[in-house]
Design a protein that fits this description.
binds 1,3-dihydroxyacetonephosphate, alpha/beta, binds glyceraldehyde-3-phosphate, 13% strand, binds sodium ion, 328 residues, binds zinc ion, 12 helices, 45% helix
């Protein structure tokens, strides 16, 4: 059934695991996540970005997720809005029936300009007030996602800061985090530790200087009772890039967030791990391969099936790796 995000994250904290939050935009992605969770007994967070709501249309997003709840009544499920850029957008999602919303006040309402601390506190407080009144959960964000070597937000998908960021903006400050959590009373805090959205996160396998898992530990030590969220957490598996490029794709060399680094972060308070890109890579590789090998096929179901299966494999792997097996 649809349950409270807060309840789900509390359970994860009590039992020491993390939950992948998968971005969904269409039927096949919803099916992939649900069947993966069903096979391993995992709890599910389905999240829709503003872009997803625009792509599918709000009624479709809402009813796709309702359909998932109906088809899998035994799976605890949360419908979460990802990266709301204004309190109005969050209110819209709550009206639609989302049980959880992210107010990303780390950026201004344009979703591109880094904001001030006071602005962030103000908009996040507003959303906490409207959400808690109806029992909904709020995720906020402090710090800007960005590449610590280049200062780029990695916003090829349109979600992220524009222009260069400086080093300190891209690492959430533990003291500020404590003040932010106290002032806003939010339920979960997304932190910046060097990850960024999209496929091009790191130019090499990340080491501690460009992926600051140590910062997770410092933040957790300061606010041990706050659930932490990692964005930009796709692992960008090399084998998925290879399939894409083997069948006509042209992706450049790139590295994601290694699963073992996420596993380390889960030991220090990270409970929600956002993943979109890995599903995109898996589906694209599978479609390219299928159509290359079957140039005579034209029934969309025939190429959507392997895409859905490839997405499912990624989801299942993350559920197992983050400790979700049997927790649903
Ligand atoms: O926040 C980033 C997610 O990957 C969502 O991307 O806005 O293209 O749906 P999107
Ligand atoms: P990835 O691009 O690494 O999958 O991150 C997705 C995300 O953070 C959505 O909010
Ligand atoms: Na989010
Ligand atoms: Zn994100």
């Amino acid at each position: 059934p649809l349950i409270s995000m807060r309840e789900m994250l509390d359970h994860a904290a009590e039992n020491g695991y993390g939950i992948p939050a998968f971005n969904v935009n269409n039927l096949e992605q919803v099916q992939a996540v649900m069947s993966a969770a069903d096979e391993v007994g995992a709890p599910v967070i389905l999240q829709a970005s503003a872009g997803a709501r625009k792509y599918a249309g709000e009624p479709f997003i809402k009813h796709l997720i309702s359909a998932a709840a109906e088809m899998y009544p035994h799976i605890p499920l949360v419908m979460h809005q990802d990266h709301g850029t204004t309190p109005d957008i969050c209110q819209g999602a709550l009206n639609l029936g989302f049980g959880s919303v992210m107010m990303d006040g780390s950026l201004m309402g344009d979703g591109k300009t880094p904001s001030s601390f006071d602005y962030n506190v103000d908009v996040t407080q507003q959303v906490v007030a409207m959400a808690h009144k109806i029992g909904a959960t709020v995720e906020g964000e402090l710090g800007c996602l960005g590449n610590l070597e280049t200062g780029e937000a990695g916003e090829e998908d349109g979600v992220g800061a524009e222009g260069k960021l400086d080093h300190s903006q891209m690492l959430t400050d533990p003291e500020e985090a404590a003040v932010f959590v106290k002032a806003t009373q939010l339920d979960a805090l997304a932190i910046a530790i060097g990850t960024s959205h999209g496929a091009y996160k790191f130019s090499r396998k990340p080491t501690g200087d460009i992926l600051a898992i140590s910062r997770v530990k410092e933040i957790h030590a300061r606010i041990p009772n706050t659930h932490l969220v990692m964005h930009g957490s796709s692992s960008v598996p090399q084998e998925l890039l290879a399939i894409i490029n083997q069948y006509g794709g042209k992706m450049k060399e790139t590295y994601g967030v290694p699963v073992e680094e996420i596993q380390e972060a889960i030991k220090f308070g990270v409970r929600k791990i956002n993943i979109d890109t890995d599903i995109r890579l898996a589906m694209t590789g599978a479609v390219r391969k299928f159509l290359f090998e079957n140039p005579d096929k034209f029934d969309a179901r025939e190429w959507l099936k392997p895409a859905r299966e490839a997405a499912k494999l990624v989801c299942k792997a993350r559920y197992m790796e983050f400790g979700c097996e049997g927790q649903g």
